[in-house]
Structure formats: structure tokens, C-alpha cells
Amino acid sequence: AVAASPLVVACLLDDASVREALAEADLTGKDLVDLTTSTPAESRTRAAWANGRGARFLDGGIMAVPPMIGVPEAGGYVFYSGSREVFDAHRAVLAVPAATRYVGADPGFAALHDVALLSAMTAMFAGARHAAALVENAGIDRKEFGALLAGWLTAMAPATAAYAGGPVAEDPTSPAVAAAGDAALLRTAQEQGVDTALLIASAGSVSGM
């Protein structure tokens, strides 16, 4: 497969899988695009590894779930970083499965964007699971509560821009009011028998910013 085309696209389990799969391949003159989820450091190491074997390298971070692939209006896209020449040369092909977003010449930038957004998503889902646990045994309709949860998170989503320096309205909440609110969250979790580790970690990360 590698010998058959000047463009090689890898999307495997992890960085070690890419190294193993291409260990014996001749990459001389090839353009290697790696869509495997990795860390920024791993992506930079893979770029140097590919360049050392005569290939140009482009890293990718997929921001989509399987049903989004090949569906332009679904909202999925892929971050790319590394060789701009490789991105420009293959942009039309790379845009077939999902939209493309080039984020810089540093090979680690796509992975950094990818993992940063996935980290926020992971925390959001953890918060949703925590919310569901609070009401699980309270006699509240789970389907109705799920709709409320989705609507609330959607309404709050624009405010997340503040954490990345985006425009946001000034928060009029005083530190004392915020602290009292956090304390109420903790007491409620304790009353409902739900682990408070997520709330404690979240309060610490916000106060440390």
C-alpha cells in the first residue's frame, strides 16, 4: 500500500502502532499524513522520524465521530500541522472525509489542538455523568432531566470562550458568592452519596487560573 502511492495516510491505534506498521516501509519521496491521536511531543518525534527516512510529514487530529465522516454538513473536521507544502498538495484529497483546518508548521500543533478540545469534551461528559448520578435515585424522570441537561450545557457553551481569551461578558458574580455556590455543590453531592472528586478538581483548576 505504501509503495502504491506518493501519499500515505496512517490512522491507527496509537503512535507505537504507526511506528510498527511502517517499520519496514520505504518512505523515500513519500508524503506521510498521520491522523493517529497522539501527543504534541510524539507528533514532533514522528515528523523527525519521517523526515529522516526521506518523507515529508503532516500530522492530523480528527475532530469528528464516525457518523460525521464523509458527511460535509455534519460539522466534523481535521486539524493539520507540519509541512504546509504537503497540506496544499493534498488538500483536496484530505477534504474528502472531513473539512480541513491547517493550524501551523509545528508538527505538534494539530495534536495539541486535538487533545485540548478532547480534554474539554471529556470533562464535560464527566460533569454530565456527575449530574445524572445526583438525580439517579431521587425519583426524577431521567429522560426529562437529560433534555434539561443538554439544554443547559448548550446555553452555557458560549461562555467557555473566556478560558481561551475569547470575548465574554464581564462576570458580575463576587468571589464570595462563587465560593458559596461551590460549597453548595459539594454539600449536595455528599447528601446524594455522589463522589465529590470531580467538583473538587474543577474548583481547583478554576481558582488556579
Describe it.
The protein is of the alpha/beta class. It has 2 domains: 7-107, NAD(P)-binding Rossmann-like Domain (Rossmann fold); 114-207, N-(1-d-carboxylethyl)-l-norvaline Dehydrogenase, domain 2. Helices cover 49% and strands 12% of the residues. It is built from 7 helices and 5 strands, in the order βαβαββαβαααα. Strands 1-2-3-4-5 form a 5-stranded mixed sheet, with helices on both faces. α4 (109-135) runs antiparallel to α5. The chain starts with 6 loop residues before the first strand and ends with a helix.
Shape: elongated
C-alpha end-to-end distance: 48 Å
How much strand content do the residues show? 5-15%
Number of helices: 7
Measured on Cα atoms, how large is the radius of gyration?
22 Å
CATH fold category name of the largest domain: Rossmann fold
What's the quick description here?
With 209 residues, this protein is of the alpha/beta class.
Which key terms come to mind for this protein?
single chain; 209 residues; alpha/beta; Rossmann fold; 2 domains; five-stranded mixed β-sheet; 5 strands
